[in-house]
Structures are given as C-alpha cells and as structure tokens.
C-alpha cells in the first residue's frame, strides 16, 4: 500500500504557528505488532542499469550507499542497525515477496508488475509518487521479512543535486536521488510518515495521533519522514532529530543481536505464512513532487519475504 500527501497552501501558516515535533511513527499490523528487522544487518541489492540514462553508476550507488548509511550505526552510534548495500548488473527483477531486499528504478512503466511482466490493475501506482517502498512482516511477531524500494524514473528526472548544483535552479525539474532514497530507507526499517493526509491518524510513539500534514509544525516538515519533496530538495539527505530518535529507539546499540547473514545471501522464500504488508496504495492527487510511502494492511497470505 502506498500513501502520499497533497501539499496545500495551509502549510505556509503551519510554518509560523505549530508546536515542535518530537516523535516518530511505526508501521504496525492489525493485531498491534510493530514492524522491525530482527538482525543487525539488512542486505540490500541495487539494480542501477535502468537509471544510467540519467546518472552514472557511481552516482547511483553513491546515493544509495549514503542513504543507507544515514540510518545505520556508521552515522549514528546509538544504533546497531547496518544497512549493507551491494549492486548487481543482472536484469532488474520485479519487486515481489521473495526475501530479497531491492532498490530498483522503473523507467519503462510505473505500475505493480504481475508475474508475466504486465501491469497489475489491482495495485495502481500514482504517477505523482517519486518512489515507494513495500514492506512485509510476520503478523505474529512484526519481524520484517522483505522490503523493496521502487524509484519512479518514468515520470521524473533524477540527479545528484549536490554534485550538480546547476540543476537545482528555479524551474529545473530534477529531484535528488539521495534525498528520496533516504526517505524510503525510513520505510524500509519500519517507519511510517510523520503526518497524515486523511483520517484516522496513526499514533506516534508517544500514543498521540499524528498531525494533518496541512497543519504540521516546522519540526514535522523538517523530518526525513515528511511525505513530500519539491524538485531541488536535498534536506531529507540527513536525519532530523525525530528520525534519529526512531532508529535509536527501535534498534538501540545496547541491544545489538549480533546477527548478520553473509553478503549476497538470497533466501529462497519469504518464510512468512501470514504477513502484514506496508506497500502501494492509491495516494491523493496533488503536487507532482511527492514521495510515496506506505500504509499498511494485513494480508493472510504470503507476500513479501
């Protein structure tokens, strides 16, 4: 399921008068289990070939590496989490429930692919979504089994806007890849958006309903997990205090499970008999510069890893 937000004019007023944030939101299954990886290391494979018309392989992998590092212990010593990135020159696979965590770029269509390679009409992808992440976890434990990030290279142009600041000027259509993928990495580790565009509002870690995005405070607007980004935006490359709090609370260094599967290990199945799934849903129509995210639905069938 996927969720996006329409950015409205009321956000301007919110910048002036709203309380600062100090919270984060986690995905939970219908029976209240919170999503979380059980191991120290999360293996992630990038398939850069379908974005090479816009960026070099070095730029693509550098963006994904930096996005992963932002949520890992290499950047925040308070967490044990280690998102480990490798790359592949193999043909780009589908985002599906196979126990492999992927970053893929969609340049020929923007839809949920069925097994035969055609678009699945039952799972629409909003063309306004910059990227989306689908996450599945065990309904009995909340343990994440699979997560896939899909970047919309069909409707949007991507670049490294720090290395190429000339592409950030007024009217330029480029989006920063690292900015978007850092946001999506937050979903990959089990986080939802920090505001909502429609009721009922999820609860944050303090038990408080999250704000409507149109009334969000400056601190909420500043979070990496705020669900909107404009062309030229690079602010989500680094975590805000709320985002840092999330990864350090959920994956604290003091509770490191010291468990890592070898690099390149690929499970043959999800091992998830009943999964709660966070992934594509129909988002609101709005600003084209949106980062899609995930709402969650429990599905009593095998889906992702």
Characterization of the model:
- It is a single chain.
- This protein is an alpha/beta fold and 305 residues long.
- It has one domain: 3-Layer(aba) Sandwich (Collagenase (Catalytic Domain)).
- Mean pLDDT is 82; it is low at 1-21, 264-271 and 280-305.
- The radius of gyration is 18 Å and the shape is globular.
- Helix 2 (57-70) links the parallel strand 1 (41-47) and strand 2 (82-87).
- It has five helices and nine strands, in the order H-E-H-E-E-E-E-E-E-H-H-H-E-E.
- The two termini are 16 Å apart.
Give the strand order of the largest sheet, numbering strands 1, 2, ... along the chain: 2-1-3-5-4-8-9
Question: Per CATH, which architecture?
Answer: 3-Layer(aba) Sandwich
Number of helices: 5
**What's the CATH topology name?**
Collagenase (Catalytic Domain)
Helical content stands at: 10-25%
Mass-distribution shape: globular
Rg, nearest Å:
18 Å
Unreliable stretches, pLDDT < 50, 5 or more residues? 1-21, 264-271, 280-305
CATH superfamily: Collagenase (Catalytic Domain)
State the name of the first-level CATH class: Alpha Beta
**What is the straight-line distance between the termini?**
16 Å
As for the number of domains, it is 1
Strand percentage, roughly?
15-25%
What is the succession of H and E elements?
Answer: HEHEEEEEEHHHEE
């Amino acid at each position: 399921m996927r969720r996006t937000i329409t950015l409205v004019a009321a956000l301007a007023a919110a910048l002036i008068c709203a309380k600062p944030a100090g919270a984060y939101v986690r995905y939970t299954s219908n029976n209240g289990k919170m999503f979380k990886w059980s191991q120290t290391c999360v293996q992630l494979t990038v398939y850069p070939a379908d974005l090479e018309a816009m960026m070099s392989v070095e730029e693509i992998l550098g963006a994904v590496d930096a996005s992963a590092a932002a949520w890992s212990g290499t950047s925040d010593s308070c967490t044990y989490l280690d998102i480990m990135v490798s790359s592949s020159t193999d043909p780009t696979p589908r985002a599906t429930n196979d126990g492999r965590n992927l970053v893929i770029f969609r340049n020929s269509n923007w839809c949920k692919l069925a097994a035969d390679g055609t678009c699945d009409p039952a799972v629409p992808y909003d063309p306004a979504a910059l990227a989306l992440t689908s996450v599945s976890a065990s309904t009995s434990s909340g343990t994440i089994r699979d997560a896939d990030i899909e970047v919309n290279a069909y409707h949007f142009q991507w670049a490294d806007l720090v290395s190429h600041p000339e592409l950030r000027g007024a009217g330029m259509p480029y989006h920063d890849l690292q900015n978007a993928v850092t946001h999506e990495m937050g979903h990959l580790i089990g986080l939802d958006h920090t505001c909502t565009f429609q009721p009922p509002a999820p609860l944050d870690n303090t038990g408080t309903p999250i704000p409507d995005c149109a009334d969000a405070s400056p601190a909420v607007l500043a979070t990496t997990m705020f669900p909107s980004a404009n062309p030229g935006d690079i602010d989500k490359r680094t975590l805000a205090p709320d985002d840092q709090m999330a990864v350090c609370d959920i994956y604290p260094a003091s509770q490191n499970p010291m468990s890592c599967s070898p690099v390149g290990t690929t499970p043959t199945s999800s091992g998830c008999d009943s999964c709660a799934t966070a992934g594509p849903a129909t988002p609101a129509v709005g600003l084209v510069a949106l980062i899609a995210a995930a709402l969650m639905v429990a599905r009593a069938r095998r889906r992702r890893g």
